[in-house]
Amino acid sequence: MTVPDQQIPGVIHRRVGELFVTALSDGFLDGSLNVLRNIGEEEAAAMIRAAFRPVPRRTSVNCFLIRGDDATTLVDTGCGDTMQPTTGKLLGHLAAAGVAPEAIDLILLTHMHGDHSNGLSDASGRAVFPNATVTMHEAEWAYWSDSANVAEVERTGNGLPYFAMAQRQMAPYLNRLRTFRDGEVAPGITAVPLPGHTPGHTGYRVASEGESLLIWGDITHVPEVQIPRPDVTVIYDVDPAQAEASRRRILEQTAADRQLVAGMHLHFPGYAHVAQDAGGYRLVPEPWRQAL
After folding, report:
1. How many domains in the chain?
2. What pLDDT was estimated at residue 152?
3. Domain that holds residue 137
4. Would you say residue 4 lies in a domain?
5. Is 58 exposed, middle or buried (0-12, 13-18, 19+ CB in 10 A)?
6. What does the pLDDT look like over 180-227, one tens digit per residue?
7. Which of 41, 112, 155, 182 has the largest count of CB atoms under 10 Å?
8. What single string gives the DSSP state of each residue in 230-262?
């Protein structure tokens, strides 16, 4: 009997009007629950077990490709080769989707934590996407490139690797960097600022022909916990109170509007709706669609 020795590629397509969106898995990260705040580890573990998920914590890492007549756009670049061996799958899955790195015209970053931007350059410091313009909120690049912030983390030791990684990853793109405040950042793609997790953390609303999808970045890291309990923050939040406020606001809006969402840390492929539940919210994963 012949049995498979690997999973099929982590590539899932769907349409949003005339735009073609592809969820691309970069893999997953396993970690502890001590990164959560405002909840005990035992309570968080119980919530994860109730959802039939691995304990202590398994976090999907997703990226999204948006193709239209005008451009091929990649939202986030995953971990590259800098984190756990279960990540760094983006380039293989791009190839499975029939897209070469040279074909990427625009990279939209939700923010510059390593699991979102470390795929920008390789171990030699060369740009992985040689023809791409990199775009992010102006507050995001201002935060990561500010020498005063670097000096502060050098003093405290809190978050220093992230600054070093962000600056290394962006080095080959500095002459192709574009920032924004809000509004349309590409045809059919509008920035939705969601600050708190980082100062310039941003979601992107993809809209065409009356259909829309909100790619919400890191609104949640552990969906089994933070969707029903929006008050739960993570140690990686630069401004935890603001991160909680952004999460509550976007959960309320997407539930009321029945807005389809996609998340970098929702379980692959990451498409879902938000429903109001007793005292909180719950995620309803979008069923797989055969037709495009």
Report:
1. 1
2. 67
3. 11-284
4. no
5. middle
6. 999 999 999 999 999 999 999 999 999 999 999 999 999 999 999 999
7. 112
8. TT-EETT-SSHHHHHHHHHHHHHHHHHHT--EE
